[in-house]
Amino acid sequence: QVQLVESGGGLVQAGGSLRLSCAASGRTASSYVIGWFRQAPGKEREFVAAISWSGGTTYYADSVKGRFTISTYNAKATVYLQMNSLKPEDTAVYSCAAKRGTVRTIGGYDYWGQGTQVTVSS
Which of 85, 84, 109, 108 is nearest to 95 (CA)? Predict the structure, then answer.
């Protein structure tokens, strides 16, 4: 079992930045992949970014490429999502998830956090 807890959400103006954190505990392993997803009201959940625990491989949705950066801090078993140049359309509940598998496969996540709200005002 892997437990995931997100933090760092909030309200920010368009063009601003936020950094989300995903703290992992339990039976984490170097073979795990951590992904970030988001879901806006009335919309389906959308993939945002993913990273291998080693940090060597990352993968981004086209909608966030160049604005968001995913990274790991293994000493604290934490994955970060640095979000810059935020837009109102980035408003959503952001959740992190974990799986054993490949970074570039969007599906297959077994463990999920509860999510953190990000609101970007225009």
Answer: 109
Nearest of 101, 91, 3 to residue 48 by alpha carbon: 91
**pLDDT tens digits, one per residue of 1-19:** 899 999 999 999 999 999 9
CA gyration radius for the chain?
A: 13
State the CB neighbour count (10 A cutoff) for residue 50: 27
For residue 25, CA distances in Å to 10, 14, 43, 77, 115 come to 24, 33, 30, 7, 16
Cα separation, 120 vs 15, in Å, equals 9
